[in-house]
Give the backbone structure.
Amino acid sequence: MNPRAFSTLGCPGAGLDEVVRLARTGSCFGVELRCFEGQLIGPESDPAEADRIAGALRRAALAVPVLASYVQVAADGPDVVEQLARHIALAARLGAGQVRVFGGGAGLPKGRWERAVRHLAAAAPLAATAGVGIALETHDEFLTGAEVAEVLEAVGSPAVGAVWDAVNPWRAGESPERTADLLGPWLRHVQLKDVASPTDLRPVPPGRGVLPLGDVLGQLRRLGYDGWISLEWERAWYPEAAPLAEALPAFHRVLDAA
């Protein structure tokens, strides 16, 4: 059975006690920490605060599979590698396995792929030394497994892998089988969710929308993927969505039935 987690994107503003309580309502043994200003942890959090959070989660027997950063590796700026280094150091203090990154670079298509490869390749040795992976998510300008795999193949480092956001490649027309084939060698983390339609991305409890979750989970079994599966309930972006506590049981039912 894959270990299960949830993202704090689903409980914006929640304190540590609330996060622990949510985990204990089901069989979640990990918390994907959204790294954002005003949340439990942010890019500028000091080491003492990171140590405090890490200690509290450790005492609650909760792992941190992913520190979900908002670094855009295809951005055109002088500080992208510095941002990555800062998040890698923070993840190491938290005991996080991966730093999630986005591709980005929406307004600068020329050289986007090259920038992503260059920045990830420069940060890969830092990640390897810290014992923390960097995982590029199927998101934004790198929506599909094909786009992410092309970058990762060029970087060619075991310290750099992929996050499979189950919705994004599918809504771009890539089948779960194709995504699995492309990301298989690089897969480090899976984010599960469900939606009403490919063009209506409001959160729907897993199993009640149109995403072929059974196919996604079947492909993960085929790959022999034994890593984390995390519920990404996007209540931070859709505040009208039900509370995370109401979505977690549906998440567990989908995984239990797989």
